Amino acid sequence: MPGIIDLRSDTLTVPDEGMRVAMARAEVGDDVLGEDPTVTRLEEDMARRLGKEAAVFVPSGTMGNLACVAAQTRPGDEVIADAQAHLVLYEVGGTAIVAGVQLRILDSIDGVPDAPAVTEAVRMADIHQPVSTLLCIENTHNRRGGGAVDADRVRAAARAAHHLGLRVHCDGARLFNAAVALGVTPAELVDECDTVTVCVSKGLGAPVGSVVSGDTPTIQEVRRWRKRLGGGMRQAGVIAAAGLYALEHNLERLEEDHANARVIAEGVEGTSGATLRKPAVPTNIVLFDTRAPAAALAARMRDENVLVSTMGPHTMRCVTHLNVDAAGARHAAAVVARVLRD
Ligand SMILES: *Cc1c(COP(=O)(O)O)cnc(C)c1O
Q1: How many structural domains is the chain composed of?
Q2: Is 290 in the pocket of ligand 1 (CB under 6 A)?
Q3: Considering only CA atoms, which of 115, 151, 149, 152 is closest in space to residue 135?
Q4: Most informative mutation of 66, 95, 142 for ligand 1 (most atoms within 8 A of CB)
Q5: Which end of the chain is more exposed for a tag (fewer CB within 10 A), N or C?
Q6: pLDDT in tens, 115-138
């Protein structure tokens, strides 16, 4: 009988012994002065993996997204994003308060609007209208079931935006999950994106941090915004070391999380108590709509040591990660299926 299986989020991972040793031994300096060699190595490593010129380490994905929006817009501009994007739902309205932009939200199937939808959403050069300057996409897409969006779909949306003079930001909090699930390099998924935020604190298993990548002048501006937002960190190599360790050790194993998520998804699909949201290319998130109230179901699962999150009155989410093994996933699948069936 396994202990508590915590599927509320992949943010719950804790550093293992190897990661802690890497953190303890990290070579450090004052990163605001550009003198932390470990932070610099993490930035260079991420930029290289994503095929970008430069990168900057930020405390969170939320700050990374906000700094990218602020760096690529002016107050009063309009930013196009999917209606269910993390930027829209879970970032406390930061883009409105801090960057002073207005969001134009579109409903898309998998979180990336298709090219005609992008083209149609861009405002005309009319004195009455806001200026459209940025398209934000999310890959994988959390709130739409953790689906990975393939490179061609991303490129089509990005090219439509670029054609009309907009820039493109990718919220790639789980970009590596998308790359692994699609069997492509992460660079291919963002080759038409100007900026990308990747979280090392999710499935990659680091305790803190995200990295923003892009072209050198834009990253310079994002770095300025990081400082302005209070995100300039000093001997940050201690946490950057965890990110480097994660990139070195925890990338390929994301496939195990996806396999474990499939086991749980099959458990959900086998019951009549819920409807599984099925993205074209699933990853480590299992999202489903329940007949009974989600809070009551979650409480019953909790009684059996399985923790899941409620995403709405009748919506639940399980996320697999580094600290859930195959046996744990099988046990969780059985509990989830039994509770949903009753
Ligand atoms: C977690 C997440 C973020 C924000 O990351 P934090 O580090 O928690 O601020 C942004 N976008 C998506 C899709 C996420 O899942």
Answers
A1: 2
A2: no
A3: 115
A4: 142
A5: N
A6: 999 999 999 999 999 999 999 999
pLDDT recorded at residue 2 = 61
Atom of ligand 1 nearest to the CA of 209: 7
| 241 lies in the same domain as 273 | no
Instruction: Give distance in angstroms: CA of 171 to centre of ligand 1.
Output: 8
> Based on the domain organization, do 124 and 52 belong to the same domain?
yes
Q: Given the CA of residue 210, which atom of ligand 1 is nearest to it?
A: 7
The answer as to whether 138 is a domain residue is yes
Total residues belonging to the chain: 342
At 20, list the tokens. Answer: 């802690």
| 281-327 per-position pLDDT tens digit | 999 999 999 999 999 999 999 999 999 999 999 999 999 999 999 99
User: Tell me: the pLDDT tens digits for 225-235?
Assistant: 999 999 999 99
Mean predicted confidence (pLDDT) in 264-290: 96
**Domain end point (choices 202, 218, 249):** 249
Q: Which residues of 205-242 are buried (b: 16+ CB within 10 A; e: fewer)?
A: bbbbbbbbbbeeebbebbbebbeebebbbebbbbbbbb
Whether the CB-CB separation of 251 and 45 falls below 8 Å is answered with no
Please enumerate in sequence order all residues whose Cβ is within 8 A of that of 265, keeping only pairs 6 or more positions apart, or say none.
276, 278, 282, 286
Residue with tokens 């990660």: 321
User: Domain limits at 314?
Assistant: 253-341
Residue to substitute in 202, 229, 283, 285 for testing ligand 1 pocket (most ligand atoms within 8 angstroms of CB): 202
Where residue 342 falls among pLDDT bands split at 50, 70, 90? confident
Query: Residue 62: in which H helix or E strand, if any?
Result: helix 61-71
Buried b (16+ CB within 10 A) or exposed e, 248-279: ebbbeebebbbebbbbbbebbeebebbebbeb
Residues near 124 by Cβ (< 8 Å), separated by ≥ 6?
A: none
Give the residue among 127, 215, 202 at the shortest CA–CA distance from 168: 215
Query: Are 203 and 267 within one domain?
Result: no
| Same domain, yes or no: 66 and 150 | yes
Cα 126 to ligand 1 centre (Å) = 35
